[in-house]
Amino acid sequence: MAEIIDQPISVSLISDIKLNKVYPYFFKWQNRIYKINQVGLHHTERVGRILFHIFSVTDGSNFFRLSFNTETLFWKLEEIENGF
User: Fold this and answer.
1) What distances in angstroms separate CA 67 from CA 4, 17, 40, 77, one per listed residue?
2) 7-28 in b/e burial notation, b at 16+ Cβ within 10 A?
3) Under 8 Å CB-to-CB from 20, ≥6 apart: which residues?
4) How far apart are CA 33 and CA 78, in angstroms?
5) 83: pLDDT strictly greater than 80
6) Count of CB atoms within 10 A of residue 29's CB?
7) In whole angstroms, what is the distance from residue 24 CA to residue 14 CA?
8) In the prediction, which pLDDT does 43 show?
9) pLDDT of 84 over the 60 cut
10) What pLDDT score does 1 carry?
11) Which of 14, 13, 26 is nearest to 60 (CA)?
12) 80 forms bridges with which residues in the sheet?
């Protein structure tokens, strides 16, 4: 079951010209670095006038839902689900 986190995080991105994509590579939360092994889904959501990019990712042990606010340019860890 997913646990709601809703906390700010630091994210490092990869900009891949060959794939024509930008995606999260790792993030830091609670003084721990999580390397992202795979990006599952990526979609956008609009809340009022603010556009959010939502990424569903895994580090191989956990699932995470990350959101990027295009107005503030900040990231949040929205949810975590332990284990598969």
Assistant:
1) 13, 22, 13, 7
2) eebebeeeeeeeeeeebbebbe
3) none
4) 16
5) no
6) 19
7) 6
8) 97
9) no
10) 82
11) 26
12) 3, 64
What is the biggest distance separating any 2 CA atoms in the chain, rounded to whole angstroms? Answer: 36
User: Tokens 């606010």 sit at which residue?
Assistant: 69
Report which residue type is found at 7: Q
- pLDDT tens profile 16-58: 999 998 999 999 999 999 999 999 999 999 999 999 999 999 9
Q: Which residue type occupies 77?
A: L
Structural tokens at position 73:
């340019």
Contact 44, 50 (CB under 8 A): no
Q: What is the pLDDT of residue 73?
A: 97
Nearest CA among 78, 43, 39, 80 for reference residue 63: 80
